[in-house]
Design a protein that fits this description.
The protein is built from five helices and 15 strands. The protein is α/β, with parallel strands linked by helices. It has two domains: 154 residues, 3 Solenoid (UDP N-Acetylglucosamine Acyltransferase, domain 1); 41 residues, no CATH class. The strands form three sheets. It has a seven-stranded mixed sheet with strand order 1-3-6-9-12-14-15, with no helix packed on it. A four-stranded parallel sheet has the order 2-5-8-11, with no helix packed on it. Strands 4-7-10-13 form a four-stranded parallel sheet.
Amino acid sequence: MRRPNTSLPDPTVRFPIPGDRDTVFLRAVITSPFIEVGDFTYYNDPDGPERFEERCFLQHYEPHGDRLIIGRFCALAAGARFFMSGANHRLDHISGYPFDEMADAWKSGFDPIRHLPPSRGDTVIGHDVWIGNGATIMPGVNIGNGAVVGACAVVTKDVPAYGMVAGNPARLHHRRFDKRTIGRLERIAWWNWPIEAITRNIDAIRSGDIDRLIDASP
């Protein structure tokens, strides 16, 4: 029987870096059924990365049913925030003010489902995405594989695969590779390889040579 390679990182371990308590594998700390995180995605925060749900998964209202879905091998910097559809207010009513939350006298006749603002849908972060310090992702946004979100960016619309966005609102500055190369990388989808194949070909994955990566594809 083949023995497992114990030198490989374990995505179920909370703190993957020896002696480092600022970085967690998110899969190991998530408890909400409305958050899905792929293997080896990490969050770094000197103020306690294990509090990701409390600090970064914001304004989620269960009746919406919207989810935060994050792929594999993503890197999330401190203060990255994901606002869910519960952050919205009804703009088709005369007032968007949450009267029912402020006083018992204003609760009469309030139907939380009828007054629920429309859901923007799931927020989906692809694989191998880097989200910079203090970036804000708004409800229902989709961020493609290999994308980069700059520090303090406010992302209000979808980001293409391997796109690089920054600013408020975030704008696409350029793509990391040309369209043909992006298409090839999407087809290779190295993040879905077995961990043994990734390990064997780690030098190709962290190189800038896509032909070398294609040759290494299992």
